[in-house]
Design brief:
The chain has four helices and seven strands; from the N terminus they run βααβββαβαββ. The chain has one domain (about 5-159): Aminopeptidase (3-Layer(aba) Sandwich). The protein is an alpha+beta fold.
């Protein structure tokens, strides 16, 4: 997966983003959080109306930078990331997911790079992410990319 495959999400990507994000949450956190915990996360973060609305407002809400997607050679969305700058200079990754069948193919890395570039363009000098569980599989990914623990559920890095 090359960074060139990362693009701004279009309205037609909402269903794919919702599906991928829900599948990634279930795969990564199903055993850790259990059915009820995963159900709450999916309900809160993967609702199609919410994602459609978020795609429609990049730059339209204070601090919101929108969704990016990664597509394969056939144009199928295989990953997504959302982020913003809720505080001046402070980038926040709100969601990052890749197709669970396509892990370790550079999709997450390309998406994180795209989101980071967008945040830097808007003045971010640091980046943070909140995690649903301390022992989640995302910790290793973010640590590999220079994030360190700020709290058990928050990671951060300087840009």
């Amino acid at each position: 997966m090359l960074l060139a495959d990362v693009r701004t999400a279009a309205p037609g990507d909402a269903t794919a983003i919702s599906r991928l994000l829900a599948e990634a949450i279930r795969t990564a956190y199903g055993e850790i959080l259990g059915e009820i915990g995963v159900g709450r996360l999916v309900s809160e973060h993967c609702a199609l109306p919410r994602i459609r609305a978020e795609i429609g407002i990049p730059g339209g809400a204070p601090g919101w930078l929108g969704w990016l997607v990664a597509a394969d050679a056939d144009g199928r969305v295989v990953g997504a990331v959302s982020g913003g700058l809720p505080v001046a200079g402070q980038g926040e990754v709100y969601a990052l997911c890749a197709d669970p069948a396509r892990l370790r193919q550079g999709i997450g890395t390309a998406l994180l790079a795209g989101a980071t570039e967008r945040m830097r363009e808007h003045g971010a000098v640091a980046q943070r992410i909140g995690l649903p569980a301390e022992q989640g599989p995302a910790v290793a990914f973010f640590t590999h990319h220079g994030f360190t623990a700020l709290t058990p559920l928050r990671l951060g890095r300087s840009l």
